[in-house]
Specification:
The protein has a single domain, classed as Metallo-dependent phosphatases (Purple Acid Phosphatase, chain A, domain 2, 4-Layer Sandwich). Helix content is 25%, strand content 23%. It is built from eight helices and 16 strands. It has a six-stranded mixed sheet. Helix 1 (16-35) packs across helix 2. It is globular, with a radius of gyration of 19 Å. The relative contact order is 0.16. Bound molecules: fe (ii) ion (FE2).
Length: 375
């Protein structure tokens, strides 16, 4: 299914200063891949995908209805598009826009403006790249009094499904009711699809009436079927909220705020030997390999928090001694069945997170590289 309607060949090139810049990124990635290269020719990259989330600003601007951190978003989309070959997918794991409003017209305007930004970007102009977007709590919830976790925003799911329809890649998810007792139809918010020898599972982590949960009954069935499929070699799950809040992130109503559901979920992920659960929500980059809560000896799947897309970074990240950075994560699947992760990042003006981000001043470099293959 072709997700993006391409208008013409009027592909917008990156600014000149970006034209040389991604070469450095590609070179570093090539070095990393070369370091992991086996001696046979089957170790080449078969396909890849990029992941990022949480790019929304915290104060809307009259000049920019998208509420995106444009300098970071546009640079990231240009760099991803400049990869050779470009990734097959970009997964945007939620909090694209500020949202968090009961005014659904405002939410719609923000999302429509965001889509315009994406379509005008080099990534949006490249028909070889498919964007798959997931809602975050900023697209699904509204604040409520003393409830610091927010509550479901009635009608927000319908706005998302309408505006973001071109960037939804499946419809086999759970419907209302069922064993997961869902209040609304989640079939196009939580779903799965296969690409080559990978099974992708896209999860809405804030379904109406069940914030910070995932439908574990549907997930069990879906993962079970994927594991029965002999053509599937890898499983990657993607969502907005982490299953485990990193130690250098501020707890913020993630899946671990409902530990009984989270424990079942992570047991399922580990039980299916999924490679990774890639998320955002926490505004930092973090990679960990959490053990199954009910079976501490079972350590398989990686949790990758790629929540450093451009929103104000988590204060605890800097307090940990790290230098916060914005960027994106790329997973490359090799012909011989390995999954190689590369985290790219660029420093930024810590006093003004929405400031312009010139490549000369803030070069993007490899910040994390790992073989995350799960046997
Ligand atoms: Fe979030």
């Amino acid at each position: 299914m072709k997700l993006l309607s391409k208008t013409d060949g009027n592909r917008r090139g990156a600014p000149w200063r970006l034209s040389w810049f991604p070469l450095g990124v590609v070179a570093l990635a090539a070095l990393w891949l070369a370091a992991c290269r086996h001696d046979n020719e089957n170790s080449g990259v078969a396909y890849s995908f990029a992941v990022l989330g949480c790019n929304r600003v915290d104060v809307p601007s009259l000049d920019d209805p998208s509420t995106a951190n444009l300098p970071q978003l546009q640079r990231t989309l240009a760099e991803i598009a400049a990869m050779q070959p470009p990734p097959d997918f970009i997964f945007f794991t939620g909090d694209l826009v500020l949202g968090m409003t009961a005014d659904l017209a405002t939410l719609r305007r923000q999302l429509e403006a965001w889509v315009q930004v994406y379509r005008a970007s080099p990534a949006g102009q490249n028909p070889a790249i498919r964007l798959v977007a997931l809602p975050g709590n900023h697209e699904s919830q509204v604040p409520e009094g003393s409830n610091q976790c927010g509550v479901s925003n009635p009608g927000a799911e319908a706005v998302w499904l309408d505006v973001m329809a071109p960037f939804i890649a499946g419809d086999n998810g759970p419907r209302a009711g069922g064993p997961d007792q869902l209040q609304t139809d989640q079939s196009r918010l939580t779903y799965s699809f296969n690409f080559r020898d990978t099974h992708f599972v896209v999860l809405n982590t804030d379904p109406v009436g069940a914030a910070a949960t995932v439908p574990v009954h549907w997930i069990a069935d879906d993962l079970g079927a994927a594991r029965q499929d002999r053509s599937i070699r890898h499983i990657f799950a993607l969502g907005h909220k982490p299953a485990f809040t990193p130690s250098d992130a501020t707890p913020d109503c993630s899946l671990d705020s409902n530990p009984s559901v989270r424990n079942v979920f992570w047991d399922e992920i580990n039980g299916a030997s999924a490679t990774s659960y890639l998320v955002s929500h926490a505004h930092l980059y973090n990679r960990s390999q959490p053990a199954s809560p009910t079976a501490p000896g079972v350590i398989k799947a990686w949790q990758v928090v790629a929540g450093n897309g451009g929103s104000p970074v988590d204060k605890k990240w800097a307090e940990s001694g790290a230098t916060p950075y914005y960027g994106y994560t790329v997973v490359s699947v090799t012909n011989d069945g390995r999954a190689l992760l590369t985290g790219y990042g660029r420093n930024f003006d810590l006093a003004n997170y929405i400031a312009p981000s010139p490549a000369q001043q803030y070069p993007t470099t490899v910040r994390d590289a790992a073989d995350i293959t799960v046997p």
